[in-house]
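In the laboratory, one determines a bound structure by crystallizing the protein with its ligand and collecting diffraction data. In a computational setting the workflow is compressed into a single prediction: the sequence and the ligand go in, and a structural description comes out. We illustrate the idea with adenosine-5'-diphosphate.
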Amino acid sequence: MDGSFDQREGVQAPFYLAQGDECEVFAAAHANTLPLLLKGPTGCGKTRFVTHMAAQLGRPLYTVACHDDLSAADLIGRYLLKGGETVWVDGPLTRAVREGAICYLDEVVEARKDVTVVLHPLTDDRRILPIDRTGEELEAAPGFMLVASYNPGYQNILKTLKPSTRQRFLSLEFDFPAPSEEERIVAQESGLDPARVKALVRLAGKLRGLKGQDLEEGVSTRLVVYAATLIQQGMPVERAIRAAMVEPLTDDEDIKRGLLDLVTAVFG
Ligand code: ADP
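The predicted complex, in structure-token form:
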């Protein structure tokens, strides 16, 4: 099911460089059984943050990448035919509720409308998950936490979270890290030397400045890490940048040429 994975106690927390007090807010939300919404552009560290916090708190983690075909049944579970028998199979949300795990719904607004209906009784103080198909009404085990993310940038009017849903979550806003922090992250993730990382981060800043004019979205930290990784592996700088920081941003040839001019200005 949809990229869900389980992280058990004792697993070392993956590297995460905090931008502020988000780790404290997450821990407080978990301690008080409150759901949490992470808002911010793609590739700025939201998934890494949740993975890090789940390991810190010693909770299993179920991650679901939401898409426009994802329904409540995909999260809750369904009857499947197994060797001539019909058996109930829990979905990732039900497993998380039973085990007291953290369930992370990445890009939750992409999911079908019936998903929000399921989340409502889980996000108020009842903390229950009704499973219509089996007649069960599950009470969330201690430790269960619902975390969802969305990117306010590329919503259209039809795809935004309704106030009645948003107001059930604590919210944290994420953005790309400040240059000095992004340099630390990219160096750590790629192993590339700091001087070369610095130039890539400078370029990323310039590319982000084009958001709203030529580009719909600025380059993500994820893509800067990709570029640095390719360079560290021996790929020529220009080639790596084109593959990781130019081609993923646009299909428009004129805009691409403009971006490559920026690359030359920074590296030339
Ligand atoms: P999102 O979930 O916001 O789309 P990710 O969490 O997948 O983004 O981040 C993409 C990559 O960027 C991560 O795999 C990691 O390499 C890097 N990254 C971004 N922010 C951080 C951070 N604060 N600490 C550590 N790594 C980060």
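Residues 1-7 have pLDDT under 50 and may be disordered. Keep in mind that any predicted model is a hypothesis to be tested, not a measurement.
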